Amino acid sequence: MSHTDHDSNHPRIISTLFASAGIAFLLAIVVFILPFQRKVEDVAIRAQGDVARHSAQSIQLAVSALVEREWDSLVGFSAYVDLDDHDGMRVLTDAAAMASEGITWAAVVGLDGTVMASTLGKDQGADVSTAPWFNQGLRGDTVQTASSGEGSRIFLSRPVRDAYGQAIGLAVYQLQGAWLDRVVQSAAARLEVDVMVLDTNSEPLFAYGDWTKAGPSALIRSRAELGTEFEVIVSSHDDAPTVSGVFPNVIEGSMPPFGWSLVVQVPVTTGATAMGSAMSSLIWTLAGLFAAIGVLAIVFAYRYLQPLANLAREAAQIANGESIFPSEATRTYEAEQLSNALARFQARMHREQGAG
């Protein structure tokens, strides 16, 4: 049995070429595609972080403008109040509530905590001396949030002062929490983001979107309590990555601090979708690259390597004593040299056999 009859464990040169091309393509994916994918994710996270920041700023401006309007109304209300004119105070309290959808109750309270005049006479004559908004309000401009079975209520209070600047009473507005909730939800729906407003204790006041299903995480609560500047928080919600940001102050302006925090959340997939065309182009580019590598490998193999493979097989046949003439190969220097060498070797073998 000749040597060539035995199967060799060594790979063929053409198979090696195709395997090398495949490995090179896989290495290109590992070296280029995976880092590019991570880069795309980073870009998506940064982009969504900007979306969250801009959305938070938009909501902050909308809510601040609305609440500041009510505060300016209270400033004017406290300046016009005359504690000696009961009928005049009743007219002012009724007018304040009629002028704004958000004001559910306006009142003038004496230094002893007795409600002297109020909207439609509600709670008139009641003692509110134990209410936090009353005690804090006598010391200066105050915002106080309270919750009840009817929902959250926001009390804006401001001292009524005499000509000498001494506090002689208290002007107070009660804002409806549901009113602000509608404003926040409307802005969140328009911006297509999930929103949650936290009070001074980092407890939810208002929520929209996915925040209505679950409360804030411990990380978000801690950021709200610390009052740090807006910082992107990447987390997972329902197995989908999200980007959240905590805005330390929902309401800003020439009024007392509310101490509320605004949390905005957007899905990362929204930002990744914006990269969809780039990823699609990349996939088609890779497919084209793979096809080009395959075509080049086939052309190279059959044009340059196949002649060498044929000559190698013919060399083995000649070595086994078969009388064949090696094929002529001139496409590469090495193939031409091998072809000529086999031809000379075969001719010499024929001469020796003839002489024998």
Structure description:
It is built from eight helices and ten strands. With 356 residues, the protein is of the alpha+beta class. It has three domains: 39-62 and 179-276, PAS domain (Beta-Lactamase); 65-176, 2-Layer Sandwich (Beta-Lactamase), CATH 3.30.450; 280-355, no CATH class. α1 (13-80) runs antiparallel to α4. It is rod-shaped. Residues 1-6 have low confidence and may be disordered.
Summarize the structure.
The chain is an alpha+beta fold and 356 residues long.
List the helices and strands and how they pair.
Elements: H1 13-80, H2 86-99, E1 103-110, E2 115-118, H3 132-139, E3 142-148, E4 151-161, E5 167-176, H4 177-191, E6 194-198, E7 204-208, H5 218-226, E8 232-237, E9 240-247, E10 261-267, H6 268-274, H7 276-319, H8 333-355
Helix and strand content put the structural class at alpha+beta
Question: How many beta-strand runs?
Answer: 10
The CATH class of the largest domain: Alpha Beta
Rg computed from alpha carbons, rounded to a whole number of angstroms: 42 Å
Helix content: 40-55%
What coarse outline follows from CA principal-axis ratios? rod-shaped
Domain count, please report it: 3
**Terminal residue distance:** 24 Å
Please report which band the strand proportion falls in: under 5%, 5-15%, 15-25%, 25-35%, 35-45% or over 45%.
15-25%
Main beta-sheet strand count, sense and barrel state: 5 strands, antiparallel
CATH topology of the largest domain: Beta-Lactamase
Q: Which stretches are poorly predicted, pLDDT < 50 over at least 5 residues? A: 1-6
Please name the CATH architecture of the largest domain. 2-Layer Sandwich
Strand order of the largest sheet: 2-1-5-4-3
Number of helices: 8
Tell me, rounded to a whole number, the average pLDDT: 80
CATH superfamily of the largest domain: PAS domain
SSE sequence, one letter per element: HHEEHEEEHEEHEEEHHH
GO cellular component, one term: membrane
Transmembrane segments: 12-36, 282-305
Domain HAMP: 302-354
Keywords: Membrane, Transmembrane, Transmembrane helix
